[in-house]
Amino acid sequence: MELTAVVWDQAAGGYRLRTSQRTESEIAPLLAHVGRAFVTEVVLQTVANYNLRCRNTTLIPAKELFAAPEAAASRSLSSLLDRRGRVGVIWYAMTKYPWVQTWQVTPTKPLFSSQRFAPFNYPFADQLPSEVVSLITKVTQGARSLTPTATDTMLHATRAGLVATGALDMWGEAKNFIHFVRPTTLLLSAGSHVVITSRAQVQRVVADFTTHYQGLIDAYKNRGLYPANNVCEIRVTGLDQPGDIGVEGAVTPSLSSALPVPGRPELDTAVWLDVLNLPGTPNTGEFFAELDAWFMALPSNLGVARPEWSKRFAHTAAGAWTDDHELQEGIPGQFPAWREALDMLDTLDPKGVFRAAFYDRLMPPPGTEP
């Protein structure tokens, strides 16, 4: 609704705190400033708490969940969206059965659901079984060929954990199921993009992406390489629509990855595609560069692909954030108000206090563009 940031005050000749309302133009780039500003305080809008039914399964084969639309049946991701409303997928690399989470608004408790009174209902994900810890340790120490065994063991530990904790079918306040990652959860490195598409194209997007992802895994495995050694996560959400907050004249977050695409109202859905691996894994840059290529070549009829700012992107074999073509041409082209956003950020920080070498490549100062 509003935020306070450290910005340049021309009259005072220095930096000062200034509060901007959601209806003011200068707030547009600050709402998702990619670290190019310093925000000290925000006023958020939320909704009244409500009840959710959260169901978990590891019994849907990936080939069925991610089937091409023409072959999709009742257990496809799109069908689950139709029936449950919200779907999240955690797919351990080189396994055949993803962990599928669904969240459904359910005012009253279903008879056989387990009622939960607190968040963090997956303790097995925070306190990994000793056999999983042992395998991860060996993989990080160089026993890369154990990667398929490690991810398969993670899947079996998840299955056992869901049963042991009664987490297959849970019900309670929404906050108990929206919060499930602790600071003690296994630390991973993630590369992620979001595809802004139409609801009707969600199954096609996940089918095409997972085919590409699995093909890369197989190709690298045939070379004795395992850069994808943890999970692929998929979530489907709405977009960052300013009209949703009910404030007349609210501006659009100009650098939000979930920004609507002007002139294409049919693109109303965000599909987040996130691949995670263990930090320091060999061939990470090369593998993720080939993943990035899928997003950069996304057909326009499927929508628009943008990076998830908090994750890795723009890979080359040298690592993340090293593909200057993607940083300077590909990414800016997916944000219709990119130049205006950069100009405003430079106005708010003309001395470059909140700049770094990375921003000089992604968001070059005026007059220095390549």
From TrEMBL:
Gene3D superfamilies listed in its UniProt record: 3.30.465.10, FAD-linked oxidases, C-terminal domain, Vanillyl-alcohol Oxidase, Chain A, domain 4
Domain Cholesterol oxidase substrate-binding: 52-364
Record Pfam families: Chol_subst-bind (PF09129)
Domain of life: Bacteria
Keyword set includes Flavoprotein: yes
Recorded GO MF terms: catalytic activity; flavin adenine dinucleotide binding
Keywords: FAD, Flavoprotein
Stated name of the protein: Cholesterol oxidase substrate-binding domain-containing protein
